[in-house]
Amino acid sequence: MILPIVAYGFDVLRKVAKDITPDYPGLDKLIADMWETMYSSNGVGLAAPQINKDIRLFVVDSAQMFANMDEEETMLYNDRPGIKQVFINAQVEELIGDDWAFNEGCLSIPKIREDVYRAEEVTIRFMDENFNEHVKTFDGITARVILHEYDHIDGKLFIDHLKPLKRKMLKGKLDDISKGKVSVDYKMVFPK
How many Å apart are CA 191 and CA 8, to the nearest integer? Predict the structure, then answer.
């Protein structure tokens, strides 16, 4: 089932999400719905807070980014062909390497894209959908998508990484989003 994505301005996007246990009600269906919602919105990642759930759960499919690049462009990144992964109760263990810029957007903040600096690599501890624990290091585009989604479960948004002047310049657009004055081609709900 395609779930509505909450827009900028919802409180849940600013909460630090809670860990869950394997007996979380309807977890398998929730994960399946998150994949369906992400794909129907043309996203490459989706975090539970974006569907109004304050739990530490996100999904990432960086493989589809590589599928949409030409072969020459894929050679710029060591993490090809990407991953498709569920992350539960994730905790960043280490950020490695220099920060690098990439133009990011967010399904909860439509029509705004900005260059964001993030670490080259991330080592992250997480549970998969079967609650098997993993500690893995990711780099390149995959690391970036993971860090973007990880921010969501920590109550942060990609705009928080921008310089204060840039954020100030975006205030009008952000206010419009929170008031529902934006048109999207996916299911979205706006704060009341």
Answer: 8
pLDDT for the residue numbered 75 = 67
List the beta bridge partners of residue 6.
189
Q: What is the pLDDT of residues 31-54, one digit of tens each?
A: 999 999 999 999 999 999 999 999
Q: What integer pLDDT is reported at residue 7 of this predicted model?
A: 98
Q: Is 149 a residue of the active site?
A: yes
Give domain status of residue 189, yes or no: no
Inside any domain, residue 47 = yes
Q: How far is CA 103 from CA 67, 108, 132, 183, in A?
A: 18, 16, 33, 21
Query: 152: annotated binding-site residue?
Result: yes
Residue 148 among known ligand-binding residues = yes
Residue pair 113/54 in contact by the 8 Å Cβ criterion: no
The conformation of residue 4, written as its DSSP 8-state character, comes to: P
Degrees, nearest 5: CA angle 152-133-90? 10
Q: Is 141 inside a domain boundary? A: yes
Is 39 known to sit in a ligand binding site?
A: no
Q: In whole angstroms, what separates CA 78 from the centre of its chain? A: 20
Low-confidence spans in the chain with pLDDT less than 50:
none
C-alpha closest to that of 45 among 135, 144, 137: 144
